[in-house]
Amino acid sequence: MAPEQMSPEDPTRTPPPRRPVLSYLLFAGAGCLLLIAAIHGAGYAAVDLAVRNSGLTPWFQNSFRALWLGYSLQLTVIAAILAAAAWKPGTVSKAVTILCGRCWNRRTVAFWRRAGGRPMCGGARRNRFTT
Fold first, then answer.
1. Which of 12, 19, 22, 75 is the most buried (most CB within 10 A)?
2. Range 70-73, long-range pairs (CB < 8 A, 24+ positions)
3. Are 126 and 119 in contact (CB under 8 A)?
4. Contacting residues for 110 by C-beta, under 8 A, at least 6 apart
5. What is the pLDDT of residue 22?
6. Rounded CA separation 53/101 (Å)
7. What does the pLDDT look like over 116-127, one tens digit per residue?
8. How far, in Å, CA of 17 to CA of 48, rounded?
9. Cα-based angle 51, 57, 59 (whole degrees, multiple of 5)
10. Distances (CA, A) of 47 to 60, 62, 73, 125
11. Cα separation, 31 vs 86, whole angstroms
C-alpha cells in the first residue's frame, strides 16, 4: 500500500517525532522575555513624561528615551531568536542561543560592578578598601 493511501488509523504508520524538552524551555524563556519586553515597553509613556519634566538637556532626554526603547527592542529580538530556535531546532546554532542567554549575565555583572559590588563567590576576600 502506498503512503498516500494509508489511513490515519493504520498501525504501521510511525508517529511524528516528539519535540525535545529543551524546545519547551526555550519557548518558555522566549515567552518570559516577551512579557518583560511588553511590561517594560508599557512603562515608556510614564518614563517619557518624567524625563520631559526632569529638566535635563534635550540630548540627555533623547538618549534616555533611546536606551529605554533599545532595551525593549533587545528583549524582543532575543525572544524571537529563542523562539526560532525552539520552533525549528536546526535554524539557530547552539552557540547563538548560549550567547543570547549570556549577554544578560555580562550586562548584570557590569552594572553590579559599577554600583560598587564585590564578588561573593570567592569567599571572604579582602579588597583594597578594607583594613
1. 75
2. 71/40, 72/37, 72/40, 72/41, 72/44, 73/37
3. no
4. none
5. 79
6. 36
7. 666 555 545 555
8. 49
9. 90
10. 13, 12, 16, 40
11. 11
pLDDT tens per residue across span 64-119? 899 888 888 888 988 998 888 888 877 888 788 777 777 766 666 676 666 666 65
Which tens digits make up the pLDDT trace of 73-84? Answer: 888 988 998 888
**Cα 68 from Cα 49, distance rounded (Å):** 13
Domain boundaries, the chain: 20-114
Average pLDDT, the chain: 78
**pLDDT given at position 28:** 92
Q: What type of residue sits at position 68? A: W
CB atoms < 10 A from the CB of 23, how many? Answer: 16
C-alpha span between 130 and 99 (Å, rounded):
36
The position carrying cell 561573593 is: 120
Side chain identity at residue 44, one-letter code: Y
